[in-house]
Amino acid sequence: MAHPISSDLLALQQLLAGRYSIERELGRGGMGIVFLARDVALDRLVAIKLLPRALAEQAEYRDRFLHEARTAAGLSHPNIVPIHSVEDHGDLVFFVMAYVEGETLGQRVRARGPLVAREATRMIQEVAWALAYAHLRGMLGANVVPPARGAADTAPRATSDERLYVGPPFFARAPDAAGGADSSGPTVPSRWPLTVRSYRTRGLASGDSLERHAGLDLAVPVGSDVRASGGGLVGQTGSDSAYGLFVMLRHPDGYETMYGHLSRVLVQRGDRVREGQVIALTGNSGRSTAPHLHFEVRRGGRSVNPLSLVREGN
Question: CATH 1.10.510.10 region(s) of the chain?
Fold first, then answer.
């Protein structure tokens, strides 16, 4: 479906004159418009994803777009479309990525019918490898959803060499009438930090009044995903003699959450994170006798019972 020439397109073309020549629109979704363009200096096709100016004027969406695009630009995987540059010019915020010429999986199935088992297995493996790679680098706090009609940049795309590519980055959708409020911004802690089964070994919520152990210790296998209990800002990361590798997040209303005894930290100080985003992997670092996660909630600098805010296992 052709879209009328928009003020966004005209402004972008004027800004990029001499560097990129925009040829046509490829698709659009809740968080961006994708254009096919030619890199003038290198004489190659690229895809440019532009954050609509109506969203770029809102700090929450602008910061989220830039942060996730810059993080995705650090990904290097044979099945993920690479990002060449991320640019911020006032109300024009966009990134430039490789253009992968080919058909989407949906187009292939509609044209040729169902995939044979061997081909489907290979494609599932390639997508799974790409998503797992991005997941370990904190890119999948948002839901992975089927692409909207016309959102050509997000659909897995097969090329002439039969390789399957996934378009970065993995954004959540902008809020709409059907989706309700967007939960990607700062939120009070409310989400259980683990998705695998765990059990509490000690903590305030377990009634350890003699130890008065702040927070919860949750026995869990090494390498399990640790998810942000709420959206917020990474206030601190580092290593502590007691808690080992740790992450501390700042949330609204004076709340902080701390995650300790980690094996790997996937965020940096100053990063904005979404509720449910994978921020670290569990481990056995610091003063620890077995693999577990230390999860603590503080308000105004004082520890509070996590289960007064977070429902176990939610």
Answer: 1-182
> Does the predicted TM-score (pTM) go above 0.85?
no
- Please name the residue that has the structure tokens 């997040």: 249
CA dist., res. 220 & res. 206, Å (int): 17
Among 313, 39, 277, 263, smallest CA distance to 169 is for 277
φ and ψ of 246, to 5 deg: -145, 165
Residue 148's pLDDT band (cuts 50, 70, 90): very low
Please, where in the chain does CATH 2.70.70.10 lie?
A: 199-308
pLDDT digits (tens, 9 = 90+) for 24-73: 988 876 678 889 999 999 999 999 999 888 888 887 778 878 877 887 88
- How far is residue 157's CA from residue 152's CA, in Å, rounded to a whole number? 9
Burial class (CB in 10 A: 0-12, 13-18, 19+), 299: middle
How far is 275 from 283, CA to CA, in rounded Å?
Answer: 21
How far apart CA 279 and CA 259 sit, in angstroms, is: 9
Query: Euclidean distance between the first and final Cα of the chain, in Å?
Result: 41
**pLDDT tens-place string over residues 221-270:** 988 889 999 999 999 999 989 999 999 999 998 999 999 999 989 888 99
Q: Which residues contact 242 (CB under 8 A, 6 or more apart)?
A: 260, 286, 287
Third-level CATH fold of 1-182: Transferase(Phosphotransferase); domain 1 (1.10.510)
Question: What is the CATH class of 199-308?
Answer: mainly beta
The burial class, CB within 10 Å (0-12 / 13-18 / 19+), for 2 is: exposed
Residues in the chain, overall count:
314
Token pair in block for residue 255: 């709340």
